[in-house]
Request: fold
Amino acid sequence: MQEEDWRVSGCTPSFHERNTAALDGYIISIIGSPFLGVPKEVITKEVFQWLTSVPDIAKDSMRIMRYTDEFVGYEREIKSGQGPTTFECYKMEHKLTKEETTIKFQSFSDDAWKRINQACLSPADGPRTVLEIFVNMGRLMETFYLYFEDGYNKPSNMKKVMSQLLLEPFSLK
Reply:
């Protein structure tokens, strides 16, 4: 609702306000959907309680999705009149060019990957199976946004990428 209020009023929030609202919108999907179909032996009561606390690895997986979507889909979102994007708010607030802002958002994603890798190197919180789900969510969404051009509108590379991933043999020489 907050995002819609900004769009309708023509108000441009700070990067922090916009980023918080955008990330909050992803919490339900990142916590719930990846675990549909996971055996109940993996998602115990303790794991479920841990997930509902929104662990850092979940937040970082969500950040990778958001930040990658922001710099890849920036042009599309501006043209659609969706209101100020997180990318646009950061760009305006810091008086940067599109290219400089893209580099900054890529570094936000890189930082999230570093934290995810660290969490997987010394898993203290959740079971490794659950941590891997968050790693794979980040991988999937990053691939979706970066390699399918503009994931939503031009999935022209999807057949090629899926074929390379699933059908074509490769060697590890």
In short: The mean pLDDT is 79. The helical segments are 2-9, 15-32, 45-52, 56-80, 86-93, 98-121, 128-147, 158-166.
